[in-house]
Write a structure and sequence with these properties.
Layout (H helix, E strand, L loop, with lengths): L9 H17 L7 E6 L5 H14 L6 H18 L11 E11 L2 E10 L9 E5 L5 H8 L3 E7 L3 E8 L2 E9 L13 H27 L8 E6 L3 H7 L5 H4 L2 E6 L5 H10 L1 H25 L3 E3 L1 H10 L2 E7 L4 E7 L5 E7 L7 E2 L6 E2 L5 E4 H11 L3 E5 L4 H9 L3 E5 L6
Helix pairs in contact: 2-3
This protein binds zinc ion (ZN).
Length: 418
């Protein structure tokens, strides 16, 4: 399936954020002069402008003339950017960065970046002025992956909630009317046991309804469900197929948890850590399994920049596999005799001079064009209806993609012999 035109995938957007953040982290200011502002979706733009105006006037108290000028310039630049927005920030908020960064030799450069709609909503307004930009909250958002359903229960109480990335959100709870094991006088033992089982069954149904209401509408976004509680409650609950069948299929595992109040949801996430890590990597693992199968026994594997690029251009690539940790640029060298070469260089390295692979003519670095390798490849992919998958390096075959295959591979639609 190809992404809709003009709408880059979540993975691709994350990569673009990642790249900007890595650049922003490299910068520092000689004084406390780099401004970062986190704007949550419910903050009015006019309030942000008012805050920036206030900071601008307070900055006049800064003793160092250079720092004062730099801070005020940064704030002016941010105000200029805010003019492009109406009353409301974008849907998930935005983050603004501006400041005079050191470029060496006592010189500075004015840098302004606006990141709209980060992977998660900006939670609260933050104004931060420092010798570095504040990138940590954004970095946390990028690390966070996945949406999971959480259920904890025993025979008395149950809680359901979400795990979004690393954040636990308790949502609903229920308590049962299941009587204790001690029966009252005058009740027959048999009748008491039957009533108790009925009450337990009713309670499991109630918990399942609570989970269904919450999780079924999100079942296509849901990466899995964890169920926790003491034995045998959680086992009875799962074995009894109380949950909606589509949810039942999403259960990643059941875990012993002592508490079934809200704190039990947190315990459940701790207990299920390994299952969660596996689930997060499942899709990446499957892609790499397919790649290696094709590499060893099939004809549909391609890898390395040149080969994968050729196949992409032919429209022969079904899925483009790119290592999340690939940090290279494509340098295009046009020699005076009309030959074109492409070389990959590290993103932080300077462009080297180049000898044309066809005629041996030297192409100087300043005549070369340079573009981020991932942007280059994903653009080609988008033009040919190829799906791009970013592959984590947190498992062995993912690491191999980066180290043994240059971080670039693909699974073909048909064999091309390239
Ligand atoms: Zn040449």
């Amino acid at each position: 399936m190809s992404e809709q035109e003009g709408e880059p995938s979540e993975d691709r957007k994350k990569y673009e954020f990642q790249k900007v953040i890595e650049d922003l982290k490299e910068y520092s200011g000689s004084g406390t002069q780099l401004v970062t502002i986190y704007v949550p979706p419910d903050k009015r733009i006019s309030d942000v402008v008012a805050h920036v105006t206030q900071e601008h006037s307070e900055a006049s108290n800064i003793k160092s003339k250079q720092t004062r000028t730099n801070v005020q310039d940064a704030l002016t630049s941010i105000k200029d950017r805010l003019k492009y927005y109406g009353g409301e920030p974008p849907e998930r908020g935005m983050v603004l960065f501006s400041g005079a960064v050191d470029t060496g030799g006592g010189r500075t450069d004015m840098v302004t970046e606006v990141l709209e709609n980060p992977p998660q909503s900006v939670e609260s307004f933050r104004y931060h002025c420092d010798s570095e930009f504040l990138t940590e909250p954004l970095e946390h958002m990028l690390e966070d992956k996945g949406l999971y359903g959480l259920i904890v229960l025993d025979r008395r109480e149950a809680n359901v909630g979400w795990l979004r990335g690393k954040r636990v959100e308790p949502v609903k709870s229920a308590t049962s009317l299941v009587p204790g094991k001690q029966r009252k006088g005058g009740q027959s033992a048999q009748r008491f046991a039957r009533l108790r089982l009925e009450a337990i069954d009713n309670f499991y149904q109630e918990v399942a309804e609570m989970a269904d209401d919450l999780f079924v509408p999100e079942r296509h976004n849901l990466d899995g469900i964890l169920v926790g509680g003491p034995s045998p409650t959680k086992d009875e609950f799962l074995d009894g197929d109380y949950l909606h069948h589509e949810l039942q299929d999403k259960v990643l595992g059941k875990f012993d948890v002592s508490y079934t109040d809200e704190s039990g949801l947190y315990d459940l996430v701790d207990a299920g850590e390994e299952a969660l890590a596996d689930a997060a990597l499942m899709e990446d693992k499957n892609e790499m399994e397919t790649f290696f199968e094709e590499l060893h026994g099939g004809e549909l594997a391609t890898y390395g920049f040149d080969q994968t690029r050729k196949n992409l251009n032919m429209g022969a690539v079904d899925r483009l596999l790119i290592s999340e940790d690939l940090r290279e640029d494509v340098v295009v060298y046009e020699c005076p005799n009309g030959h074109t070469d492409r070389e990959l260089v590290d993103r932080r390295a300077d462009t080297p001079d180049h000898e044309c692979s066809t005629c041996g003519e030297t192409v100087e670095a300043d005549e070369a064009d340079r573009e981020d390798a991932i942007e280059h490849l994903t653009r080609l992919a988008d033009q040919r209806g190829t799906e791009t998958k970013f592959i984590s390096t947190d498992f062995e075959k993912g690491e191999q993609l980066l180290n043994a295959f240059g971080g670039i591979a693909g699974i073909l639609r048909y064999s091309t012999g390239v």
